[in-house]
User: Which sequence fits this backbone?
């Protein structure tokens, strides 16, 4: 399972999502299915991408689609950690500001 899911016992309604595998066209369907099951269960999501070693446009599309869906449901998404490859791709697509990551990420 490429997605680890845990509920924060301190902050009610917060789901911590950790992706520790590649986010490429080859693995994105499984990640998407795992995420889809969790969206209705929580109000806030904390996404940790520090373990992602490879990401392509399919991975970026999934993150943007997740953000869009959560916004439409008045839910929150925060990205708490990113790997170097994710940082590079976020900069290339100029989407750091969408996730409050700033220019230094």
Assistant:
């Amino acid at each position: 399972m490429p997605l680890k899911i845990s509920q924060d016992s301190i902050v009610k309604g917060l789901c911590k999502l950790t992706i520790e595998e590649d986010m490429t066209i080859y693995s994105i369907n499984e990640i998407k299915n795992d995420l889809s099951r969790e969206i209705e269960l929580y109000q806030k999501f904390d996404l940790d991408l520090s373990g992602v070693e490879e990401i392509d446009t399919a991975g970026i599309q999934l993150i943007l689609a997740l953000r869009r869906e959560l916004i439409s449901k008045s839910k929150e998404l925060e990205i708490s950690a990113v790997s170097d490859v994710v940082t590079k791709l976020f900069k290339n697509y100029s989407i750091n500001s969408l996730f409050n990551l700033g220019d230094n990420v």
The longest helix spans residues 57-72. The radius of gyration is 13 Å. Strands lie at 3-7, 14-19, 44-49, 76-82.
